[in-house]
Amino acid sequence: MMEAGENMSYSAKALSAVSGSCGNVVPEVSVIVTLNQGYDAEDLLIAPDISYSTVIDNMVIATVPVDKLELLASSEAVANLTVGRKRDFNMTFARSTAGVNIVQSGTGLPRAFTGKGVVISMYDGGFDPNHVNFAESGKPSSSRVRAMYVYGNSGSTEPTVSASTREEIKKITTDDTKETHGTHVAGIAAGSFRGTSDYGMNGQSYKNSNMPYYGVATDADIVLAAGQLTDTHILAGVTKCIEYAESVKKPVVVNLSLGSIIGPHDGSSALSQGLAKLGSRAIICVASGNDGQYKKAMTLEGGTDDSELVNSAVGLSYGTSTVTKPYTINFWSRDRSVFVMDFVIYNTATKEVEYSLNIPNTKGRGIAIGGTGLGSAYTKDEVFSKAFSATSYIEFYSEVESNNRYCVAVEFLLNNNATNSTLKPGFRFTRKEGQVIYGYIDTPTGQSAGQFKLETGSDWNGLQWDAAAVNNNGTLNDLATGDNILAVGAYTSSPNFTVTAGSNYSYRDATAVNEICSFSSYGHNTVTGEALPHVTAPGSAIVSSINEHKTSYSTNAVSGNTRQNERDNRWGSMQGTSMAAPFVTGVVGLWLEADPSLTIDDVKDIVKTTSVPYTGTDADKLVQSGAGRIDALAGIKEVLARRAASIGTVVADEMQWLVIPTSDGYELAAPGAEGIEAYVYDMQGRCVTSVSAPGSEVSVATSGLMPGVYVLRAQAAGMVHTTKVVVR
Question: 562: which residues sit within 8 A by CB, 6+ positions away?
Answer without folding.
Answer: 132, 193, 195, 196, 197, 198, 211, 568, 569
